[in-house]
């Protein structure tokens, strides 16, 4: 009964999402191997070797794996999976893309976005934007699982003798797709999915300029990541990877501040696991107040600068 | 080039669903059903490609109960040319849907299949990737932009850090994200016209795919309810609460 944990990493280190996915991996049972796939992964692999419960780190390096393209990554997972009882990955965009492809090739029904491990074959996962939690038992010989990282605490890297690191053969790239380019928002602030505090803005911010002018100083004061509703992203006030919700990112910070967000179920799906929720909205009837621990009813254009100042 | 657009009948996104008291599932009696919103975006994209002269025909296909014909009819009213419904009762999991779609692809030979990135009922986010795998085709998931050229299709994808662009050879599978386009509303004349467009209704069983679910649903539960919060009178009070009571500052 060995689990293969697929690591999210940036080459030089293991991402927080991996530490969170390690927690359900430990709950699955006895032994864990970690796969670090990419193009230049030595430093990340060395870090993976110190993760709790990990007995072996597999590295797979090839240019085609560098950008996480689904076709070569899925081929690699398919080659390795038969030696394991479970393959588990954080539900990052890379793994949401590649793991179902591998699952189909293995004739396995993937279990997406698990929020709890109840037994090695039984899991809880959200459906209907988190409004119905289902308990499912998998009848497949290998479990392919993605993890809703917002539902788990990180298992921190230990001071322990490192597990052995071993390079595995990389299947030839099927060559179906090629990387053209990427545009990554340069972030000098915490990552949304691992931040302790998140400040999110909605349609009410009115423009990209106002979104930035109001929310960034508040986020800076709080050391917060910045999120957004779908409406704010659609309107171009915030980049797409800031979207929080059913079809955006799921976050569970200690503090979530929702500014000018109505609280549609699709938005709540991504943030209602936050420890403390603050809502600022001029409409006292807005559904966001039903999940907020603290609500301020009023004009955000007055309240947000006041709050930023009060925190100074 | 023909485009195949799979569409799923789901609970309308505006409905607040209720979990049955005995934990046996979600109460779907008398609930408004609609086309999965991501699939509307797929249909729209296919129509735009046809209108641009790149695609010649748009075929909508649904797998589900008889009523899935309504969903396909909606796609026809938006402008799709014809429809197919594979009738199957009960839950058909993404893996089985992908196998059935593979059979339809073999019959129809489309150059492109555009699906929604996820269905808003099971929230699985798997079918497109699985279909692409079974066909041995390239995949461009979570697409916010498509550009078709001579040597394939360029797909701009919404990913964790921002946007990634990949080039796929054709035929290919694409899954639509929210910002690929804004789907049109069906006009009244087009709704009337759609009534005359053909929908081919067949039993899913004729394809010999095992539809038995691999995941047994043991229980369905409501998520925990957050205890009611408080309205505060001022920013000063909020800062005080966050510092002392909540201890998060
Ligand atoms: C398939 C699908 C998937 C979706 N996925 C997501 C998702 O992942 N994430 C997501 O967020 N949404 C998602 N949505 C969209 C969701 O349904 C809502 O439309 C969206 O969340 C609304 O964004 P909003 O709250 O910013 O805007 P609105 O609903 O327009 O709310 C704006 C709020 O601002 C308040 N306001 C206005 N002016 C002021 C002011 N001066 N001061 C204070 N308050 C003010 C208003 O009272 C209102 O409550 C999805 C929808 C669909 C159909």
Quaternary organization: heterodimer
Question: How many DSSP E strands of chain A?
Answer: 16
Number of strands of chain B: 13
Please state roughly what percent of the residues of chain B sit in beta strands, choosing from under 5%, 5-15%, 15-25%, 25-35%, 35-45% or over 45%. 25-35%
Q: Which CATH first-tier class of the largest domain in chain A would you pick?
A: Alpha Beta
At the fold tier of CATH, the topology name of chain B is Rossmann fold
Largest sheet geometry of chain B: 9 strands, mixed
Name the CATH class of chain B. Answer: Alpha Beta
Radius of gyration of chain B: 21 Å
Which distinct ligands sit in these coordinates?
flavin-adenine dinucleotide
CATH architectural type of chain B: 3-Layer(aba) Sandwich
Alpha-beta classification of chain A: alpha/beta
CATH superfamily placement of the largest domain in chain A: HUPs
Please state how the strands of the largest beta sheet of chain A are arranged side by side: 5-9-4-1-2-3-10
Residue stretches of chain A low in confidence (pLDDT < 50, at least 5 long) are none
Number of domains of chain B: 1
CATH topological fold name of the largest domain in chain A = Rossmann fold
Could you describe the 3D structure shown?
The complex is a heterodimer of chains A (312) and B (249). The radius of gyration of chain A is 20 Å and the shape is globular. Chain A folds into two domains: 3-167, Rossmann fold, CATH 3.40.50.620; 192-310, TPP-binding domain (Rossmann fold, 3-Layer(aba) Sandwich), CATH 3.40.50.1220. In chain A, the strands form three sheets. Chain A has a seven-stranded parallel beta sheet, with helices on both faces. In chain A, strands 13-12-14-15-16 form a five-stranded parallel beta sheet. Helix content of chain A is 26%, strand content 28%. Chain A has 312 residues and is of the alpha/beta class. Chain A has helices spanning 16-28, 42-48, 70-80, 93-105, 208-222, 230-234, 265-271, 300-310; strands at residues 2-6, 31-38, 54-61, 86-90, 111-114, 116-119, 122-127, 132-138, 143-147, 165-167, 177-184, 197-201, 225-228, 255-259, 276-281, 294-297. In chain A, a hairpin with a 2-residue loop joins strand 6 and strand 7. The model of chain A has no long low-confidence stretch (mean pLDDT 96). With 249 residues, chain B is an alpha/beta fold. Chain B has a single domain, classed as 3-Layer(aba) Sandwich (Rossmann fold). Chain B is 27% helix and 31% strand. Chain B is built from six helices and 13 strands. Chain B has helices spanning 37-51, 68-78, 94-108, 127-135, 188-194, 235-243; strands spanning 2-6, 9-11, 33-35, 57-64, 82-87, 112-116, 139-149, 152-159, 162-168, 172-176, 199-203, 215-221, 230-232. Chain B has a nine-stranded mixed beta sheet, sandwiched between helices. Chain B has a two-stranded antiparallel sheet with strand order 2-3. In chain B, a hairpin with a 2-residue loop joins strand 8 and strand 9. In chain B, helix 2 (68-78) crosses helix 5 (188-194) and helix 3 (94-108) crosses helix 4. Chain B is globular. The mean pLDDT of chain B is 97. Chains A and B meet through helix 3, helix 4, strand 5, strand 7 and strand 8 of A and helix 3, helix 4, strand 7, strand 8 and strand 9 of B. The complex binds flavin-adenine dinucleotide (FAD).
């Amino acid at each position: 009964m060995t689990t293969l944990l697929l690591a999210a990493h940036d080459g030089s280190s293991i991402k927080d999402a991996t530490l969170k996915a390690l927690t359900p991996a430990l709950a699955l049972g006895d032994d864990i191997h970690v796969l670090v796939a990419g193009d230049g992964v030595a430093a990340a692999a060395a870090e993976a070797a110190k993760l709790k419960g990990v007995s072996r780190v597999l590295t797979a390096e090839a240019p085609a794996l560098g950008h996480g393209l689904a076709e070569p990554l899925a081929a690699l997972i398919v080659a390795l999976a038969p030696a394991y009882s479970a393959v588990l990955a954080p539900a990052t965009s890379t793994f949401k893309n590649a793991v179902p492809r591998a699952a189909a090739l293995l004739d396995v029904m993937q279990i997406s976005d698990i929020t709890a491990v109840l037994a090695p074959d039984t899991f809880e996962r959200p459906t209907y934007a988190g409004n119905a939690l289902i308990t499912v038992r998998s009848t497949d010989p290998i479990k392919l699982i993605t993890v809703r990282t917002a539902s788990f605490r990180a298992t921190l890297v230990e001071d322990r003798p490192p597990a052995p690191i071993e390079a595995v053969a990389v299947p030839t790239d099927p060559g179906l797709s090629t990387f053209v380019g990427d545009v990554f928002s340069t972030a000098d602030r915490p990552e949304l999915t691992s931040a302790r505090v998140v400040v999110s803005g909605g349609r009410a911010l009115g423009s990209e300029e106002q979104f930035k002018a109001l929310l960034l100083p508040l986020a800076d004061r709080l050391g917060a990541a910045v999120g957004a509703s779908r409406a704010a992203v659609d309107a171009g006030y915030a980049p797409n990877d800031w979207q929080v919700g059913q079809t955006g990112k799921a976050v569970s910070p200690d503090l979530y501040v929702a500014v000018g967000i109505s609280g549609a179920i699709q938005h709540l799906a991504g943030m209602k696991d936050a420890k403390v929720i603050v809502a600022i909205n001029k409409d006292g009837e807005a559904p966001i107040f039903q999940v907020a621990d603290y609500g301020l009813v009023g004009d955000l254009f007055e309240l947000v600068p006041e709050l930023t100042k009060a925190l100074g | 080039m023909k485009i195949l657009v799979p569409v799923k009948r789901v609970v309308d996104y505006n409905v607040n669903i209720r979990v049955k008291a005995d934990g046996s599932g979600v109460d779907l009696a008398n609930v408004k059903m609609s086309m999965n919103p991501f699939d509307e975006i797929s249909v729209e994209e296919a129509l735009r490609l046809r209108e641009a002269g790149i695609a010649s025909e748009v075929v909508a296909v649904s797998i589900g109960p008889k009523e899935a014909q309504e969903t396909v009819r909606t796609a026809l009213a938006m402008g799709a040319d014809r429809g197919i419904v594979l009738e199957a009762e009960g839950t058909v999991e993404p893996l089985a849907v992908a196998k059935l779609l593979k059979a339809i692809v073999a019959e129809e030979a489309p150059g492109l299949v555009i699906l929604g990135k996820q269905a808003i009922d099971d929230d699985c986010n798997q079918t497109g990737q699985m279909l692409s795998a079974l066909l041995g085709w390239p995949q461009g998931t979570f697409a916010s932009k498509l550009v078709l050229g001579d040597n394939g299709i360029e797909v701009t994808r919404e990913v964790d850090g921002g946007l990634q662009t990949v080039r796929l050879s054709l035929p290919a599978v694409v899954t639509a994200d929210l910002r690929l386009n804004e789907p049109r509303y069906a006009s009244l004349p087009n709704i009337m016209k759609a009534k005359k467009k053909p929908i081919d209704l067949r039993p899913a069983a004729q394809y010999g795919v095992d539809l038995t679910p691999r995941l047994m649903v043991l229980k369905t539960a409501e998520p925990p309810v957050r205890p009611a919060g408080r309205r505060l009178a001022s920013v000063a009070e909020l800062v005080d609460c966050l510092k002392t009571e909540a201890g998060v500052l």
